[in-house]
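Researcher: Good morning. I'm working through a list of sequences from a screen, and I'd like to move beyond sequence-only analysis. For each chain I'm collecting a predicted structure so we can compare shapes side by side. This is the next one on the list. No need for commentary yet; just the structure.
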Amino acid sequence: MKTNYQLEGTPNSPVLIFSNSLGSEMMMWDELVPYLLPYFRVLRYHTSPPDTYDEATSCTIDELGEQVIQLMDELGIETAYYCGLSMGGLIGQWLGIHHPQRFKKIVLSNTGAKIGNDERWNGRIETITQQGMGAIVEDTMERWFTESFRQTNPTRVAETKAMFLRSNIKSYSKCCEAIRDADFREKLHQLSVETLVITGDEDPVTNVEQAHFLVNHIPNATLHILHARHLASTELPKEYAETLISFFTSKTNFPPLGARGLHVRRTVLGDEHVDRATAKINEFNGDFQDFITRYAWGEIWTRPDLSKHNRSLITMAMLIALNRKAEFKMHVKAALNNGVSVAEIKEVIMHSALYCGLPAANEAFHTAEEVFKEINSRL
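Model: Good morning. Structure tokens for this chain:
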């Protein structure tokens, strides 16, 4: 089965997989992505049952979970972080139970171990089959968003409504069957991956009580409640993204900014460099290393309005101007980690020849070639 997906971010960053709610497309995560790209490669995909299914063949959460594993295998992703909302949260439970070694941490958002009952799902399938998606779209928007959000964000609600109305009735119905038949209440104790459960305090679909059930039955789980309804990620994108970043980058006995900074520092400079730097920490330089990690990497490199790719270009140019050879060499390696091409590095140095002088550019060319030779010698 061919899966429609979108993968964004720099090559050296760990992958974060998003799995949609029922009736949603990849665009449901749009507002979150800029906040997350400093930390992760973001993989979004379209959840859908196989096209070959006929009316008599039911779709299962197992099959939708295997779709994730197949996509990871196709893209060469050995391990990833995962966030699934509603139906995506059911898929996340299946993945955490059956493929725990493939996931570093899992977020189960606005979901339950068992969602609804046969009557509810069969009735919905019958309604849309006979009357189309328009028959349930208004009720869906009320369940997805708080009244205040619907009043103050009419454009986003209209976009979401249009997305919902684009849903293929056959695929939507098959996903309803998968949700209807999924029940993890007796299996949650097998989910060994560290898990964060997110829900909205006004979510009428998967409420706080269901979230507590998940937390109480998953061995290593915590709960975070947002002031939202069912589509919490769309209603509160910045707060939702902050919640994900804090959870995915958190380390025991480590201040939040320090943990975030260390995470980003590793994605940019590489584990080998950071391990060498941290191994040299002592009483004299410890405060400086903490300063670098928290402020340079935890605050500046994580700002969402410049990509890591562009930050690398800017950093190299400034280091050429300042004639900081060791730092420039380090950031040429970092630029490659951030997806900057050799051709782009060349152009930065050529441009610097105009504004920093020929000797500075000449030194930069020699230094960059040293890096390229070192990297090629390891290949």
